[in-house]
Amino acid sequence: MLLGQVAVSAPASADGYSNCIPIWRNGRIVDCVPIPILVETWCPTCPPDYALDFREYTVLPETLKIQYVTALNRGLRSLDQAALTTNPAARQQLRAEALNSFTSAAQTLGRNTTVSVAQVGYIDRYAGVLRPASIPWLSAAGVDIADGLTALQKANGGGLPDPWRDLAVAEFDEAYGELKHQVVIGP
Fold first, then answer.
1. Per residue in 83-103, pLDDT tens?
2. pTM above 0.90, yes or no
3. How far apart are CA 128 and CA 18, in angstroms?
4. In Å, what is the CA distance from 97 to each residue of 78, 79, 92, 103, 174?
5. pLDDT in tens, 120-131
6. Dihedral of alpha carbons 25, 28, 31, 36, sign
7. d(Cα 1, Cα 25) in Å, to the nearest integer?
8. Measuring CA to CA, how many Å separate 168 from each of 58, 113, 171?
């Protein structure tokens, strides 16, 4: 997996920041999977990227971490595309794709692995570490993502109406809004 910036819908922010979820090995960040929402381009003179660092309990092998983080990435990308489309059928299809991606992430975690936000901050790409910082909207988005995954782990997985799946959708929508607008939406 390559480090890099993903082209997305929102215009580049004035400060040049983006978001990513770091992948750690031996205490160093070896990859940072971009969250495809905020920034169109990256520049070499821009400050470090925002980072949202999850911890899993029980600890997952690196391959499974990359797999569930990549599924989260796909889900957020689909929510971003759905927000941009004016076609109701296309929006519904993209939102269904997002839920499928989030469900895939939850299935990768299994029922016995919980996810929580360990820290948020800025990626120092040269040192390969996360520099912790107090960023309330990013912390809130991380909590909402973790809560959405937990709800999907409790969902029945079938086609029947499921309050856990509905809760997960609401949590992911809130996380998307927090990432997109850089504000805390819920409590």
1. 999 999 999 999 999 999 999
2. no
3. 16
4. 6, 9, 9, 10, 17
5. 988 877 777 888
6. positive
7. 14
8. 21, 16, 5
Structure tokens at 47: 């400050």
SS (H, E, C) the chain: CCCCCCCCCCCCCCCCCCEEEEEEECCEEEEEEEECCCCCCCCCCCCCCEEEEEEEECCCCHHHHHHHHHHHHHHHHHHHHHHHCCCHHHHHHHHHHHHHHHHHHHHHHCCCCEEEEEEEEEEECCCCEEEECCCHHHHHHHHHHHHHHHHHHHCCCCCCCCHHHHHHHHHHHHHHHHHHHCCCCCC
